[in-house]
Amino acid sequence: MSLVGIVGSGVMGVGTAQSLVQSGHDVVMVDVSEEILDQAAAELARNTRLSRLLARPGAEPAMTTAGKVEYSVEYDALAPVDFVVENITEKWEQKLDLYPVLDTVCRADVCFAANTSCTSITRLGSLTSRPSQVIGMHFMNPVPLKPSVEVIMGHHTSTATLDTAKELLSTMGKEAIVVNDSPGFVSNRVLMPTINEAIYLVQEKVAEPAEIDRLFERCFGHAMGPLQTADLIGVDTILHSLEVLYEDFNDSKYRPCPLLRRMVDAGLHGRKSGQGFFTYQS
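and the corresponding structure tokens:
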């Protein structure tokens, strides 16, 4: 398995591509416009160069992206790939359009991994003629620095598909932590309500974002507080994830905080926009 397709070139798509290239794979990256792909190529080259500069003395030098990534706005470019990792947004309408196309373009033996934090893998599998070959791979950001991946088994996902996914992750130096399909899986079913509640605390002026995060960092020993985590993931992504949980469980405990919606409407999406709960310089 040497040629991997990446669909969606946002933060997670670029991070996954970087991790694949640095572990010796070739990549075909597909997105909807040349402009978006140009930005992804520049970010991928910059991130790879930075990782080489920051590598520990004596460490194996990270591979460059030169000649290792093909960029395309045409899904037909995925015809020769051995495996696909889908990284588009959590919006169901977009996934509804995408998966039947992948099913048509890709070889019958190719497995599809959804890099999703909430969307049901079983439901995604139903969009294809190969539900046993659809699996979840919930990578965490930044992908190259995270040693483990939440791997999700859909209702029809086969053991052979799981073995293939584990093999790919192993070549990337990552451990697979396998869970069963459920909205939000394990990580986001715990993380999203935590972040949402932290946003309610800001809205109710119980504490400032810095104080909330400092409590988690100093008292619980977390590397990053919930609001910095929200900025890193993307405030808009947090909202999408909560909306999926709220819709799927029909439980008010997942109702997105009004401040979260207002921030998304205002374009305060976190690190990628330069402003979220904290301010970032490009």
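(Above: one complete record from the training split.) The mean pLDDT is 93.
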